[in-house]
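Bit of a strange request maybe. I'm writing a small parser for structure token strings and I need a real example to test against, not something I typed by hand. Could someone generate the tokens for this chain?
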Amino acid sequence: MEATNLADLYRTPLLDWGRIEARLDQGLSQSPGSGGPNRHTCWLATINRDGSPHVTGIGALWVDGTFWFETGTGTRKARNIARDPRCTLSVAAQEFDLVVEGEARVVTDPSTVAAMAEHWAAQGWPARVDESGVALTAEYSAPSAGPPPWFVYRLTPRAATALLTVEPGGATRWSF
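Reply from user aminoacidic:
Good idea to test on real output. This should exercise your parser:
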């Protein structure tokens, strides 16, 4: 991993990725009142066919050193990722703002899909594996996810940038 201090101008220290990852491992609830400014909304940016950006809020989870999200195949984000998997995910925690760049791919391993369903259920969304064994279903989801089934995506990080919003401040970019 290579780290670049983006705030040398202000003589702030290089941020430690371990500190960022440790905070992500604690979870970033999307329940109202649980984060900054009032909750932790994850934003996914994908690339439209014409090269313009498409940005949408998603219910992402940080698990095993990466972000995971779900969506239906008919959504714009799913169609964009199928054509070009490059994307970014951003989130604001109370301690830092974070942007992760990488590639998202559909995960079809039944045990991984089941494990992710358990992670979402533990966060309060009653997700479960559907009859196919490789997608999710539930009584509800975010309107932007489209109708079920919802497929699980893993974002493999290529780079990340964090801006520390607490003392001593700082900004660092990591290449993985």
